[in-house]
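Exercise 7. Given the encoded structure of a 361-residue chain, write a plausible sequence.
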């Protein structure tokens, strides 16, 4: 279970859905247990879980509550009743705490004694196999979230300086476009941004990484322009998801709040493609903490909450089609990253790259 989720759950209710003649696992998702217990919250969890299971057409269901009985049992009871009403096969319903499990379905004391059944998670062959397969299990959700912690200290100062330079580069390109009489003053930024995105993706797909702060800063700046972000989005092919996860995680760790929503949303999208739902939600939390109204993050949060499978994580447009779409709507107002930087700079009394204020992107 921890390997399926990516971390060891605590005070959680986990639902697993399976289907087919061999009960192949199709999906798994988790809820925080209401604390203190709340009948309305328990009913909401059960209703949402059943809706997802119905949508995904699973046939077999497993429920596992992690925590004390006083928190798990109210949710488990409501969940079991809801599952049975919809005629799913409830294969097992467990409570887990302190290295022991109890079954709500088995009342045979020979196999399910009142004191619970001890289990040694780390010694089980499945744990070793899944670890070897790259399905790491962090100690808890917070440990998984810490893998995306932003850089601090000297690294943050270097990044701030690189962002200052990147902002000046964007302003120079905007000024050049205006001198040429372009109807879209972001035309040159968008052109250079698409090139930068393409080169970054090629680097990671080839097994490399970007370590130059100036290159990372330029990616942050240009991704604030929606045509560039959507060009990157259209390039997120599922067969390269591991490379894309590494790319956007590297950008997110170094991005201050102003420039965070776009790369964090792209990271969430690629995590969804990889079946890493918890990681995707953590990335979305980072994006929405920086900008609660960022539309791509809000859309992805809604999709993930619906239980949509990773196979659906594909943008139905190619990069060429995205560019053509924006060309047809050239009069549509696009985000000006350099202007955003100037506005934030004015508000904060400091350089934009050093600001921790969220910005609209």
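Solution.
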């Amino acid at each position: 279970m921890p390997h399926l989720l990516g971390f060891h759950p605590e005070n959680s209710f986990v639902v697993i859905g399976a289907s087919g003649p061999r009960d192949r696992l199709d999906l798994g998702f988790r809820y925080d247990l209401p604390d203190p217990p709340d009948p309305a919250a328990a009913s909401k969890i059960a209703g949402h879980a059943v809706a997802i299971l119905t949508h995904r057409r699973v046939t077999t269901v497993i429920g596992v509550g992690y925590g004390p009985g006083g928190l798990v049992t109210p949710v488990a009871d409501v969940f079991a009743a809801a599952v049975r009403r919809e005629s799913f096969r409830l294969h097992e319903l467990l409570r887990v705490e302190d290295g022991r499990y109890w079954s709500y379905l088995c009342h045979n004391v020979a196999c399910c004694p009142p004191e619970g059944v001890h289990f040694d998670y780390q010694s089980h062959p499945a744990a070793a196999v899944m670890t070897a397969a790259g399905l790491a299990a962090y100690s808890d959700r917070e440990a998984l979230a810490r893998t995306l912690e932003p850089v601090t200290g000297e690294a943050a100062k270097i990044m701030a300086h690189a962002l200052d330079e990147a902002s000046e580069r964007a302003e120079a390109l905007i000024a050049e476009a205006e001198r040429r009489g372009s109807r879209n003053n972001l035309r040159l930024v968008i052109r250079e941004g698409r090139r930068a995105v393409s080169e970054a993706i090629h680097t990671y797909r080839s097994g490399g990484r970007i370590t130059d702060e100036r290159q990372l800063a330029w990616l942050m700046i240009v991704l604030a322009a929606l045509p560039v972000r959507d060009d990157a989005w259209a390039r997120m092919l599922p067969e390269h998801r591991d490379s894309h996860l590494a790319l956007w995680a590297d950008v997110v760790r170094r991005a201050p709040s102003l420039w965070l929503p776009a790369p964090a949303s792209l990271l969430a999208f690629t995590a969804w493609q990889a079946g890493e739902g918890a990681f995707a939600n953590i990335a979305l939390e980072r994006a929405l903490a920086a900008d609660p109204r960022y539309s791509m993050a809000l859309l992805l949060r809604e999709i993930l909450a619906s239980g949509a499978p990773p196979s659906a994580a594909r943008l139905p447009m190619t990069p060429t089609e995205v560019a053509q779409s924006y060309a047809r709507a050239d009069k549509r107002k696009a985000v000006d990253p350099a202007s955003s930087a100037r506005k934030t700079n004015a508000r904060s009394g400091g350089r934009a790259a050093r600001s921790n204020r969220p910005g609209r992107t």
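Remark. Residues 153-179 form the longest helix (27 residues). Students should compare their own answers with the one above.
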